[in-house]
Amino acid sequence: MNLQKIFLPIVGAAMVVMAWQAYGWQGAALAGGALVMYLLLHFNRMMHVLKKAADRPKGYVASAVMLNAKLKPGVNLLHVMAMTESLGEQLSPAGEQPEIFRWTDGTQSHVTCEFAGGKLAKWTLDRPPVPDEASPPVAS
User: Fold this and answer.
1) pLDDT in tens, 41-86
2) Which residues contact 123 (CB under 8 A, 6 or more apart)?
3) Percent of the chain having pLDDT more than 70?
4) Whose CA is closest to 20, among 35, 5, 2?
5) Distance between CA 13 and CA 19 in Å, rounded?
6) Of 125, 98, 88, whose CA–CA distance to 110 is shortest?
7) What is the pLDDT of residue 94?
8) Rounded to the nearest 10 degrees, what angle do helices 77-84 and 25-54 cross at?
9) Quick one: which of 29, 37, 84, 114 has the fewest CB in 10 Å?
10) How far is CA 71 from the centre of its chain?
């Protein structure tokens, strides 16, 4: 179970209660305003990432090799979408764990990411074989 979904609202409510006990309704208003500001900043970042991703082809990334180098375990899907500026092509059935997404670049190299519980668990980079241009074609 994701404790962050339970822990953060409890901490927010505790902040408001402690501020109310220390400074009365003015403290509760200040703590509530700070919580609302945090939520608005998070919502604004999420909308900005989704707006940029909506303008790009689904599952496209400029360079799969660079994406592979930048990925770190434990980041969430929104962070990966911010790096790629694109929605990933979902390979797993909707609502099933783990979620698997793929981003492909212009050279048909692709990065396949597996998200478990909303966090990046593992990823693989697949590159197509490059034909050897130095050897001449074999005549039959």
Assistant:
1) 999 999 999 999 888 889 999 999 999 999 999 999 999 999 999 9
2) 68, 71, 111, 112, 113, 114
3) 92
4) 35
5) 10
6) 125
7) 87
8) 50
9) 37
10) 10
